[in-house]
Write a structure and sequence with these properties.
It is elongated, with a radius of gyration of 20 Å. The protein contains 5 helices and no strands. By secondary structure, it is mostly helical. Pfam families: HLH.
Length: 136
Amino acid sequence: YTEKKLKRLQKNERERDRYNSLNDAFQSLRQVLPDMMKAKEPSKIETLTLAKHYIMTLTNTIYELNEQPIPYKIFDKETEDRRMDSCIADEIQNRKRQKQADNKSCAPVTDCAKPSCSVQVDLTHFKSNLSNILPI
């Protein structure tokens, strides 16, 4: 091989490694999101959108548990994301009822990747340091 061809091969290999690393990162992200799209694996943009809404919903949950106004309006009825929003909103309501019923903190994390619509979140350590975690 000439030096030019060798450099091209090295560059192609680095790009392949970068691409594989990116795909691995997306797969890892998909595994920690609630399973909302059972028919097919979500695309990269769908994965990022689901992750964004999941993070916003969890942030809203922390604010609600601390009886503060929620910072994000995420219930957009015109998009696919409403499935996740309604699922997590149902879980928020279940958590509120559970907390009122037994006056205990949230249950510990179990398995967020299970194929149900349940979201298990341990927020007890967030409550004492909320101002350090989220801008108020």
